[in-house]
Amino acid sequence: MKILYSLLLISGIILNTALSQQYDQRILALLGRCYIDTNNNALYDEGEPGFANVPISVGNTTDYKGNTFPVRYSSSDGTFLYDGLTQRTTYEFTFTNPKDYYFETYDKALACPPGVPCIRATVPADKLVANLLVANTYAYNIPLIKQPGVSPGTSVLTVKINVDLGIVQTPSPSPTPSPTPSPTPSPTPPPITGTAIAGLLFTDNNGNGIYDGKDIWTSGVSIGVYNFNDKTRALDVNGKVIPSVMSDSNGRYAFENLADGVYCLWMDTTKYFNPGCVGRIVVNSTALPKSTASDGVASPTILRAGSFSLFLTGNSGYSGFVYNDRDFNGYMTSGDQGIAGIIVKIYLPVYNFLFGTVTTDSNGRWSFTGLQPGFPIRVEFVVPNDFTSTGANLVNFITVGQSIDLNIGLAPKILTGPNAGPSNPKSFITTCFVKGAYNGKYKDEPTVVEINKDAQGKGYAQQSADYMKVLASHKDTGSVHGIAFNPENGDKFVSSYHKTNSDFGPAGSCAIYKLSSGIITTHVNFNDVFGKSYCGGYAHFFDFRETSTAGPLVGKASLGQMTYSDKKLYVTNLGKNEILVVPIYQQPNSTNVERIPVPNPGCSSSDDWHIFPITIYQGEIYTGGVCSGEKGSRLSTYILKYNRNTKSFITVLFYTLGYARGCRYLDTYSNCVSSVWRNWANSDVPQAMLSTIIFDANGHLIMAYKDRSGDISALVSSPEILMACLGTDGLFYLESGGKCGSLVGAGADQRSLSGAKYGPGFGNFFDTHKTNLHDYTNAFGAVKGGRDMIVTTGFDYYEAFEGSIRWYNASNGSMLKGYSLYITSTNGRNPSPTFGKQNGLGDITSVYDASLPQFRVGRLWVDINANGIQDAGETGISGVQVFLVYGEQSTPTSQTISDANGYFKFEVDFSSNYYCVVRIADFQDGSTITVKNADPSHPFTNSDGFLAGSDGVYISNFASADFGGYYFTGCSFGIVPKRQ
């Protein structure tokens, strides 16, 4: 496929017997045709029908009288005619496709079909003001291909014409003998009083726009000077056309005697790319220096224009596909269909010159050639407004010859699930613990249940039972805590958990079960994959020995929290302090299950380090754990983020657990039974076990703690839920006094059952108490339940000894509603299968329709020429911390680091306002932010940032879209380096 871009130059024959010269001034007309290429041969054949009503516009040029050309449409036979064109003016014609058609790629030869003239003199019957008619050229026979489903305006073809018939030669008539007259003095030539423009041309072999050791000065190139505004030939101060000049052996050129004005240069060459009229050269003689002898010009003043780049043509190029990514997976699979009519634009590194435009064919394929290897270019994809990228960049910076995937997946925005995803849950799934053997008398008791998002009341009572649906029972799964949901097909997954008095399921201590359309299977048993007792194991006795033998292994054996992301399950192995990454659509084995060890981050004894939670946020893996104090470590919490490149963890939050806590309950004598965290032990004392970490919609870090003693033997557990907020320094800070960042929680002024203040900084963000009964009732697990909502598992929402879930406002920590799943009987004669206040529920996850999340992609780059445009060859800035701020928050929502090419991305909520923020101190001293929104017609390549007062930051703002997908505007920063 050739480039859909043409520059048509038609030259006349120059006679050699000239005595006087002047430029040809004849007026031109252009006749072309839009037609349906029925045989797909990219040539106009007799009988192929013309295509009417194709919109045609002309760039910022005028006819010979200075009138602009309105938008026109091809006639009923497909022809179009433009009259009154002048020579030596570049006319740019733009054709826009109608519905269900796209422009075919075709060769634009500078010739006509054999035996047919390209230019002829007009005759009166033509009814034209023009003297000459340009017609029949291959370039202006415009072929269209029918393709149902192509949207109007998605295929755009641009063709340029510049006609210069050269100099009209006027031979002298034969002389008539006459007497020899007296000698007449030669006329004095007009004085040279204008300004000279002088500069240099060089062949820019590496495309960096700078003459360096890899480049050479360019000789033998014809250069003309033109008026910048209308692209007509420039006149000197005496009204004469300034002739073209040839660059010399040192690449030098010079024009003499220019009047004040604004000019550009036209390089007429076939060996190099022709960028059109380049530069904006302002001549103001009063402000220019005097010329000197070394300038080699006769004009009294001179504008030294510096050097201009020329780029060699070549035979290299690129190709790719644009396809409908039906499953949103970001790569092309056998079921994905190509999309026709998508425009691909290729830009050169200097002048922001459009090298060419190609359009995808009926199979979605595109290609172009004509470039030199090692040359930097920018490739842009013009996507219709009703489509979005599913992950691929729509602007790509490439060095020709570089291996790069330029296949672009798109999806209709309406199919991306704007009302779906985790922010729009339909229901929630949690796990329930059941006493005894999995095949014992309680084998039919529920272990996995689904609760409607509108649930309220008591699920164990008839009036509210319909809100809850049983998905699995004790005989199917045994004791399970971790839970994950796959929105692509609705499958649910639960993982084994070690709890005293509750048996493992049929697959043992190290299994993940899959619940698919009512069928329950073992998705993977790690004991089979990696060897017996891989997660640690224990055979329950369910007698007087249970607490002493099973209790010490709580939090140290089996599996912990589990989550789903991008067709994989992530689960923690408590027996080895590692993360297991498990494929969903393949049979897990020792090769495709990834194992990520989580080393001790700082406990004084490695034996005291115990992980449990796992989450994925902004594409990053987070885990955490506690130093248990059993071997002398200080009770504390670490939250860690995994670096996939270095395969190591960094600490994003650390805090100790010695803050004041309230009461588990009041004893018979109204004494406070303390909830202060103690070292892990096999006894009935509060023991912090970090069981859940999640991020809410505003990027706040939510941490849930199970009280380990509740999984051993304690009758009343004292769980905890805490929040940490991201600071402007990029660090997380634990809530204090019930406040987190700028947010004030519901427990800021809380008092315990004993009347004392409690919590980190003597307050809690979330209200977790049960009036007159407990200071702590949750959370064993937590999940984002909506845009500004958190849903947790705990106990005692309505009555004592219930297993309950609660809905919280994530912005103020207030409790919104609750729903209780079970109530445990305290009548010893009628024992219950449930665990009452003893950590009777596990983790919780949301159920939602599949969607494509929304991502905002930005870039940091070095704007060498300070033009505010991401030019090809301008490098990205890596390793810079970028913050995302939601709405009017004073603290960040998220943070990330720019990659090797300067790119970064954030997952954002739909229809919301955000800011991107970077610190000035992170850039080179003396650098500045470039101009904002330099080219509104190309928002993907602009800089969006600006200086924010005296805060020492550059910021940009954007409104997120109403649909899912990847968006590339509103968050890019061009940095102009300090001038040396």
TrEMBL record:
One GO location term (cellular component): extracellular region
Subcellular location per the Swiss-Prot or TrEMBL entry: Secreted
Predominant subcellular localization, coarse grouping: secreted
Compositionally biased tracts (Pro residues): 172-190
Signal peptide from the UniProt entry: 1-20
Residue ranges of domain SD-repeat containing protein B in the record: 321-393, 860-934
Keyword Ribosomal protein: no
Family membership noted in the UniProt record: Belongs to the serine-aspartate repeat-containing protein (SDr) family.
Identification of the protein by name: SD-repeat containing protein B domain-containing protein
Taxonomic classification: Eukaryota, Amoebozoa, Evosea, Eumycetozoa, Dictyostelia
